TrEMBL record:
Membrane topology recorded in Swiss-Prot or TrEMBL: Single-pass type II membrane protein
Protein name: Branching enzyme
Origin species: Handroanthus impetiginosus
Species lineage: Eukaryota, Viridiplantae, Streptophyta, Embryophyta, Tracheophyta
Molecular functions per Gene Ontology: glycosyltransferase activity
Localization per Swiss-Prot or TrEMBL: Membrane
Annotated GO CC locations: membrane
Entry-linked InterPro entries: BC10-like, Glyco_trans_14
């Protein structure tokens, strides 16, 4: 009896090192994921970005696709990017739990190391920050960073967008195009979604902002986002009221409004139709709505600039969009 107990004790003691060796391989290791992000953001911050001022090195636009489904409009984007290879880079953050397949073409090899995302959760902030950090490290010529979703489409040709950002008015040079709003309905409920005083003292209610999760940032502001620790400590906290919790719509506008309000236009280049929204989602366009008139209408803004992207489109809109791509969408 004594020998049996002794042998069992020895066996358990010997098994502990094996558990520490194999458990990290069997179970997801959240701490490792957090450490990997911290290393990525630190490297991107230390890179410091590189201002491009010579004509021998043309600045680029980094397109950051944030998706949890296949890129249904890849053929349309393929036409958009066609013949403009030296002027852009593509990075895709695809939810690893969604079995997303690569559409090939210009999207081949563009997937970055990704983690699971969830609506009404700070993982969407993390995904956007991961995209920005990867793009900053990958190519110092990336000068603008456009975050788009799988349901976004371009409203103009690539050359029109490129020239508008770098050469033409009315777009102000070296400013970020991000929606920044205050005084919106339900902004108090959104502010206290994690608890009444949780955001203090870093984020007073008077400085809390609302905006779109899809934006175009300058290199300077991309660095502001990836190096931030102070506000991120607040916005990564779990929400108690999920009905009022949209972290990705609050973090970026609040951070940039606090850090550099004059460096932001306070409007987005992505058109969204909130008429008839359902469950916090904007109107989704169907194939019967696609027409030249729709594209022209989506471009129009209440200012002197033109919208460059639009959402949200159902996947079966691809064919009618391709039918008018050359003659309407990419003819400026």
């Amino acid at each position: 009896m004594f020998n049996a107990k002794f042998l069992l004790t020895i066996s358990l003691l010997l098994s502990f090192p094996l558990l520490f060796l194999f458990i990290p391989r069997i179970l997801p290791h959240k701490r490792t994921q957090i450490q990997n992000d911290a290393v990525l953001f630190r490297r991107a911050t230390l890179s410091g970005g590189t201002a491009v001022s010579t004509t021998n090195h043309k600045p680029k636009i980094a397109f950051l696709f944030l998706t949890n489904t296949d890129l249904h409009f890849a053929p349309l984007w393929q036409l958009f990017f066609q013949s403009n290879e030296p002027l852009y880079n593509i990075y895709i953050h695809a939810d690893p739990s969604s079995n997303i397949t690569s559409p090939g073409g210009v999207f081949s090899g563009r997937f970055i190391a990704a983690q699971k995302t969830q609506r009404a959760h700070p993982t969407l902030i993390s995904a956007a920050r991961r995209l920005l950090a990867t793009a900053l490290l990958d190519d110092p010529l990336n000068s603008y960073f456009a975050v788009v979703s799988q349901y976004c489409i371009p409203l103009h040709s690539f050359k029109y967008l490129y020239n508008s950002l770098f050469f033409k008015s009315p777009f102000p040079m070296h400013r970020s195009f991000i929606e920044i709003l205050d005084g919106e309905p339900q902004i108090w409920e959104r502010y206290i979604a994690r608890g009444k005083n949780v955001m203090l003292p870093e984020v007073p209610f008077e400085q809390f902002r609302v905006g779109s999760q899809f934006f175009v940032l300058t290199q300077k502001h991309a660095l502001v986002v990836v190096r931030d620790r102070r506000l991120w400590r607040k916005f990564k906290l779990p929400c108690l009221n999920l009905d009022s919790c949209y972290p990705e719509e609050h973090y970026f506008p609040t951070l940039l409004s606090m850090e550099d309000p004059d460096g932001c236009t306070r409007y987005t280049l992505t058109r969204v139709n909130w008429t008839g929204s359902v469950g916090g989602h904007p109107h989704t366009y169907g194939p019967r709505e696609i027409s030249p008139q729709l594209i022209h209408g989506l471009r129009d803004s209440n200012s002197s600039y033109s919208f460059m992207f639009a959402r949200k489109f159902s996947p079966d809109c691809l064919r009618p969009l391709m039918d008018i791509a050359e003659k309407v969408i990419f003819r400026d």
